[in-house]
Amino acid sequence: MEEDYQPNSVQDIQDAYISFHRDEAYIYNMHISPYQEASIFNEEPTRPRKLLLNRREIRKLQSDVQKAGYTIIPLKVYLNDRGLMKIEIATAKGKKLHDKRQDIAKRDAQREMSRAMKYNR
């Protein structure tokens, strides 16, 4: 789960996810800004990046994804002393349609209450 780190880089894991290709784990849609002092031939900031996991970890994560329908997502990004990026990952299950509808209804109700309180002052 380590990736080369570039000093002064900005990471964005908002839409990132982890997928497998040929028994190797890759992280997709993770934005890492290019190194400022590098040449103009920088790598693409959102390119897929290979994660360093051992074989046992890869097999367990692959079985979770295939059997149970989980998605693997990054939670946090850490930087270590050797200039490598460590990524904390977790398996997550997506929401069902009725759960999404409930959350949207709650959010709309909360928004209505805050508007009513704002204008009643």
From TrEMBL:
Coiled-coil ranges from the UniProt annotation: none
Residues covered by region (Disordered): 100-121
An example Gene Ontology biological process: trans-translation-dependent protein tagging
Keyword annotations from UniProtKB, A to Z: Cytoplasm, RNA-binding
GO cellular component term, pick one: cytosol
Molecular functions per Gene Ontology: RNA binding
Signal peptide: none
Compartments, record wording: Cytoplasm
InterPro entries linked: SmpB, SsrA-bd_prot
Residue ranges with Basic and acidic residues bias: 100-115
PANTHER family per UniProt: SSRA-BINDING PROTEIN, TMRNA-BINDING COMPONENT OF TRANS-TRANSLATION TAGGING COMPLEX
Biological role: Required for rescue of stalled ribosomes mediated by trans-translation. Binds to transfer-messenger RNA (tmRNA), required for stable association of tmRNA with ribosomes. tmRNA and SmpB together mimic tRNA shape, replacing the anticodon stem-loop with SmpB. tmRNA is encoded by the ssrA gene; the 2 termini fold to resemble tRNA(Ala) and it encodes a 'tag peptide', a short internal open reading frame. During trans-translation Ala-aminoacylated tmRNA acts like a tRNA, entering the A-site of stalled ribosomes, displacing the stalled mRNA.
Similarity comment: family membership: Belongs to the SmpB family.
Protein name: SsrA-binding protein
Record lineage: Bacteria, Pseudomonadati, Spirochaetota, Spirochaetia, Spirochaetales
